Amino acid sequence: MSVLLSCVLLVATILMFRLLVVWPATFLSWLHIPLWLTLGIVGGILAWCIADD
Q: What is the rounded CA–CA span in Å between residue 32 and residue 4?
């Protein structure tokens, strides 16, 4: 059970990384927005969503 849970958490971590960092960075790089600003935008949106609850 522990190995299965570890595999599920690993896959979830990779998917969340792609969803929250890689895809927005790719999209915003088309608009010539740098990675540090992309991370700031995504972080700000996440903080706003968490604080809004």
A: 41
